[in-house]
């Protein structure tokens, strides 16, 4: 965990007057209660879009709790390679993002996946191939999507005719 990430969690815990361990446990419980995709069954897969990565980089408490829960549950969130390209700029300012990515599965875009993304882009009339690749990955993994672009992702999910959880970060 980076010093910046630890400081952000410590600050939130101090604000609530509890220990860091208790804050992480409470955040995970709040997240489980508030996330319809987790009710009634255990989450088995999750896909991050660019907004999720940027939220982690900004130390957004909800995103840090979501990621901590995934790691505690043994889930390696999926990050399509285009998402990484949109978020990554390098340098010390992205230490928190680098920490987050260490626990993720970054997926490449091979020819087969590129064709599937192209078909889904056409069906959904959404031509941001990074957003479409997030949905394509989530479909393959039957994953909840964590996004800052809820409306756009939902449009692609609806066009695909599948049911996936979409969580706003």
Low-confidence stretches: 36-41
Instruction: State the helicity in percent bands.
Output: 55-70%
Biggest beta sheet attributes: 3 strands, parallel
Mean pLDDT: 84
Which CATH-level-2 architecture? Answer: 3-Layer(aba) Sandwich
For the record, the count of structural domains works out to: 1
Give the DSSP E fraction (strand runs of 2 or more residues): 5-15%
Based on Cα principal axes, name the global outline.
Answer: elongated
- What is the number of helices? 9
Query: Order of strands across the widest beta sheet?
Result: 1-4-5
Please give the structural blueprint:
Layout: H1 3-16, H2 20-34, E1 46-48, H3 50-57, H4 61-72, E2 78-80, H5 81-87, H6 95-102, E3 105-107, H7 111-124, H8 129-141, E4 144-147, H9 150-160, E5 166-168
Helix pairs in contact: 1-2, 2-4, 3-5, 3-6, 7-8, 7-9, 8-9
Task: Write up this protein.
By secondary structure, this protein is mainly alpha-helical. It has a single domain, classed as 5'-nuclease (Rossmann fold, 3-Layer(aba) Sandwich), CATH 3.40.50.1010. Helices cover 60% and strands 9% of the residues. It contains 9 helices and 5 strands; from the N terminus they run H-H-E-H-H-E-H-H-E-H-H-E-H-E. It has helices at 3-16, 20-34, 50-57, 61-72, 81-87, 95-102, 111-124, 129-141, 150-160, and strands at residues 46-48, 78-80, 105-107, 144-147, 166-168. It has a 3-stranded parallel sheet. It has a two-stranded parallel ribbon with strand order 2-3. The radius of gyration is 16 Å and the shape is elongated.
């Amino acid at each position: 965990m980076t010093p910046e990430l630890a400081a952000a969690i410590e600050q939130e815990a101090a604000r609530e007057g509890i220990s860091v361990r208790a804050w992480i446990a409470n955040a995970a419980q709040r997240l489980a209660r508030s996330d319809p995709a987790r009710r009634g069954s255990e989450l088995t897969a999750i896909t991050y879009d660019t907004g999720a990565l940027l939220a982690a980089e900004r130390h957004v408490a909800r995103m840090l709790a979501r990621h901590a829960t995934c790691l505690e549950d043994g889930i390696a969130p999926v990050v399509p390679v285009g998402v990484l390209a949109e978020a990554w700029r390098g340098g010390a300012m992205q230490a928190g993002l680098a920490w987050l990515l260490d626990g993720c599965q970054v997926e490449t875009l091979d020819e087969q996946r590129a064709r599937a993304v192209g078909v889904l882009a056409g069906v959904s009339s959404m031509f941001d191939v990074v957003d479409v690749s997030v949905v394509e990955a989530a479909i393959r993994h039957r994953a909840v999507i964590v996004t800052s672009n809820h409306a756009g992702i939902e449009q692609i999910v609806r066009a695909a005719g599948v049911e996936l959880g979409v969580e706003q970060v």
